[in-house]
Amino acid sequence: MNTSVLSKNIQDFITLNSSESIIKLALQKNPFPEVDWILILNQIEAKAKAKDKLPTWFAAENIIYPGKISVEQTSSEKTAAYKASLISGESLIDLTGGFGVDDYYFSKKFKTITHCEINEDLSAIVKHNFKQLKVENCSFYANDSASVLQELNQKWDWIYIDPSRRNDAKGKVFMLKDCLPNVPDSLDFYFEKTDSILIKTAPLLDISAGLSELNFVKNIHIIALENEVKELLFEIHKNYSGEITLKTANILKDKIEIFDFVLGKENEFPSYALPQKYLYEPNSAIMKSGGFDEVSSFFQINKLHKHSHLYTSEDLIDFPGRRFEIEKVISYSKNDMKTELLNQQANVTTRNFPETVENIRKKWKIKNGGNKYCFFTTDKNDNKIVLICRKIN
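Now predict its structure.
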């Protein structure tokens, strides 16, 4: 860990220039010739990345950043805080500590936190930063996590793992068995040290693929931030054999949209209807979960089509996703399109429709934006239709 960037003059310079263009700064002469200019520029760029994602770090004094890639790859504070709300106990060990954002929030829910990070420099940086952030219940081990587990030889309430999805031999990977560490092959060993494990995976991981690799899954958490899925969390408990619950959360500025359902449970058959007064589009966490029939049954609203994943009702309801008032329904035909949408401005979405948004815009000369929302979809009678809507805030 290079502490030369902690001098007051350099820290003031980093803060002052955190909103400046790195390309522009790189062309300037280094005002601190005793310190590597690239190092200072890296601190500025990483701090700029932290402004919205890690406001606690951004606002704190004398923080050292490991580089913009580590900041880009780490959890945001909002997702880390939500994650920490899911579990609690006396002790947690993080086998893949990284920049420590998750552990900062876990430290508020557990009596002790153990941060493992094989990169010695990164481990030292997190240890330094936690002092600045006044986190006093975390210990640090700059070693391979399996070695730390063997060395400490104790039981933890929870093990937390965020396996690296970059494999030196295979490049970017998506199966858990190809990540580092290889969690599926290590589960028996981990269960010697705990009864409860929380595994963070890439949002692109197929849920069924994850279930095929893991035993004892109790809950699967799908976390979205501002309608973009950021994390999947597999919560597993030693020898668990009951129902698996999918828990979706979409973290918004002023609220968190929650929708949970039991995987594979016999539900009422969803109901179908032609477009009514209101239209509903589930948030991205629900879309990732695949719980489309469950949405229809729980909210007592109608699906437009088995594969459209859009819903409709005569009365407006509170809903975990976007809501629209349907102003007009037209057939996807040359005459209707010429009359209603040719050369118009609209926000275009397709659901269960044979053409792409790009092709539709080009074909009908539809400009992007405005207050009109058009859903190109298929109704319950397999007709191609366009729903012209007004968004309800």
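The mean pLDDT is 94.
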